Amino acid sequence: MTTAPTPVPTPAAADLGGGAGAPGTATPEPLAARSAPTPRRRRGGSRAWLAALPLLVFFAVGFGLPTIAIAIGAFTTSTDSPDGGGAFTTDNLTNSLQGAYWTALFGSIKLSLLTALIGTVVGLPLAQAVVTSRFRMFREAVLSGSGVLANFGGVPLAFMFVATLGNAGEVTKKFGLTKHGWNLYTFTGLSVVYLYFLVPLMILTITPALEGLRVQWREAAHNNRATTFQYWRHVALPVLLPSLLGGFVLLFGASFAAYATAEAMVGSSVPLISMQIGDALSGNVLVGQGNLALALGLDMIVVACLVMAIYLPLQRRSAKWLA
Amino acid sequence: MASLNFQSLGSRIRLGRGLVLLVCGVYFAVPMAASVVFSIDDNKGGTTFRAYTELLNAPGFLDSLSLSLELAAVTVAILLLLLVPALLAARLGAPKLRPVIEVMCSLPLVVPVVALTTGIVGVLRWGPDYLSDTPLFQTIVAIQDPGFPIVLVIAYVLMALPFAYRALDAGLRGVDVVTLVEAARNCGASWPRAVFTVVLPNLRSALLNASVLTVAMVLGEFTTAAILGFQPFSVWISSNGKSDGQMSVAVSILSLLVVWVLLLLMSALGRGRKSART
Predict the structure, then answer these.
(1) What domains can you pick out in chain B, each with its CATH number?
(2) What's the pLDDT tens digit per position in B244-268?
(3) What topology is assigned to A49-322 in CATH?
(4) pLDDT digits 0-9 by tens, A92-146
(5) Burial (CB count <10 Å: 0-12, 13-18, 19+), residue A246
(6) Considering only CB atoms, which chain B residues are within 8 Å of A63?
(7) Mutation target vs B (from A8, A31, A47, A55; most B CBs, 10 A cutoff)
(8) What is the pTM of this model?
(9) Which residue of B has its CA nearest to A291?
(10) Are A229 and A165 a contacting pair, CB within 8 Å?
(11) Is there a contact between A240 and A213 (Cβ–Cβ < 8 Å)?
(12) Domain ranges for chain A
């Protein structure tokens, strides 16, 4: 069993899966490290850093400055406040966790948990069905289609659903859904739309793991008279568990950070933290609370950091099985 | 290839697979089909292709599309100019750079786009607040020129870093850059020549991959542009939808299809090259 060759993921699947969000994959260094003669490397060292300098500088300015702006702004008063601005305060942060903002943060977390859970449960069997499909063209069509929906959906997705399930949407009209209490511009409606890009994201994330499930494991289980259910319960799911949890966390993060779909579709009728930030940035805050948006941004980064702190170890664990 | 072995496990698996695919196929096909119907429905029981034929004359459509394409082109150029030298340098001369680049290219994933935009707005506010009588103020005004907002390019390069890095890194893993460069140098090629005529042609599909993903990302990006108040393609779709929903739905379908076909072509191209090599 151990001597059998490992199934190799197709390049398209591997690329798309990585592109959708597989941060921090520790990749082994195959050739470059061993074939480089050491003296040349030492001579080229400073010149090599010079070649990387533009990227380092760009990153320091483009990413560093906004981060500093958030870190400083979240803890200081804004220029429109009575004291003239710049004084240290924790009011921004406390205000960002109160009232409407707290409701929005809570709403975002609730929506993200629900959609991530459904996305994971639906995505797994779908990904398995696609991975084991006999038609190569079909697999590639689904995987690249998933890439489109997961990464570039945004506004187009919102409009598709307004056309389908909105108040004047085709499906709504055909089946008279409004009479049955259907409304797209609610928490439930938004969840349905979010699943439209979260399920594809799950497919992209879990596909490499499913391709790492060896056929021999299934055959071995089968030869030992295990049923399909027993195979999944005792062999496949335990191996997949870290990848599944990682996928769930990633979906949570994607759903939590999503802005375009909700903004284009419902505006602020469903309280979500990303909508509130957009509102606050357009100046829709009380006088003296100009830096509130920065504090909200900080809240969001904290949640996203927690997500990554859970995701990265899980990802490393699942990589062990896929080697 | 794996499916051959599964056949021995009975047709039940295949039945289950078909069922799953059918249910999900319906779930994903219905909104697509309904959108197409919506975009050609004239509300009197007939069909009209007005939304497609009048597209080119729609106010703002061409302007916003060309702005998005310009942004995409500049973003790809800057992204590759920054990332390719750094990645090559990490392979050729300074292995200590690799973890640094990896962390830099993963960080934008941790910070949600909305939060990054918040930070950018914060930085832009420094202009009128603190820097109004320094030359930096002029710079901050200049990068927000609505005709060509450089600030969006900066944001897009940051957002594209993670997947462009992944695409290029995957490409570099398949090529022994060190040996290639040494062979070229031993044959008397200069450094630029070794890079441009030996290394880069070997990375063609990885470069293409990164570029297509970036272009698709820029064309679809909404959050930053909308909050900062610029009018590229996706913002136009959204604002136009308030007056002419039908046309926006039509454009949405078209843009999703175009990106999908681009990605399909890309994966077909990558496969063609791979099979040609073996």
Answers:
(1) 57-277 (1.10.3720.10)
(2) 888 888 888 888 888 888 888 877 7
(3) MetI-like fold (1.10.3720)
(4) 888 888 888 888 888 898 999 999 999 999 999 889 888 887 788 888 888 888 8
(5) buried
(6) 104, 107-108, 116, 158
(7) A55
(8) 0.81
(9) B122
(10) no
(11) yes
(12) 49-322
